[in-house]
Design goal:
With 250 residues, this protein is an alpha/beta fold. It folds into two domains: 167 residues, Spore Coat Polysaccharide Biosynthesis Protein SpsA, Chain A, CATH 3.90.550; 72 residues, no CATH class. Helices cover 39% and strands 26% of the residues. The protein is built from seven helices and eleven strands. The strands form two sheets. Strands 1, 2, 3, 4, 5, 6, 7, 8 and 11 form a nine-stranded mixed beta sheet that branches. Helix 1 links the parallel strand 1 and strand 2. Helix 6 packs antiparallel against helix 7. It is globular, with a radius of gyration of 19 Å.
Length: 250
Amino acid sequence: MANISAVIITRNEEKKIERCIRSIGVIADETIVVDSFSTDRTEEICRGLGCKFVRHEFSGYGPQKRFAVGLANYDWIISLDADEELSPELAETILKLKEDGLKDNTVVYSMKRRNYYCGRLIRFYNGGYENKVRIFNRTHANWNDKLVHEEVECQRPFSVVNMKGILKHYTYDSVEQHERKTREYGRLGAIDLKKRGKKHSKFVVVIKAIYRFIANFIFKLGFMDGYYGFKLSQMGALYVYLKYMGVWEK
């Protein structure tokens, strides 16, 4: 049987972190939480559940997750966000993978993630789910260095296996919380763009934001989720606007 290290990054996640940790309890041989100086009960909850708890100044989502992966004792990694939870079926699928030995380190494992927004399951927007790589071998793959919207990247040819079960994603408790987070993401996204030397005219930025709203609301069926689909589409457009306009700031 292979060993798996679970890694999670947190900041003020007392409302959601216990659910996440308990869902991986049957599969994780260790759970490492890297926290960017929470001021709520996050540390107390994590330590109470037997996690290794490490404080580390937030360095962007990709770099923070890479740091957490570097603390693991085992090469096979399951990397979750604090607001995610494995369904029982998904946990059983991963447990079976462990029993089979996880022999091929060129394989990464993808989970079907369903989003809950303001307490409601999003059924239609963006097809109703996303495929997210969450299990990988760190000798072959790791998180990239993007400050926001980070992804797992592989060092050589690889294959992706889609697992049975659902990764539940409890996104935002309110539209106001979503907007605050979107503004933070926009700021970090602008830093990423500056590093890559990308810049568009302000007119093009406005067109990009409008197109993103139309794409999300119409083509990705956001309208089928009613008011919440509208807000998701609106926040997606706001993120694009803030990210590209932020490049113009000195």
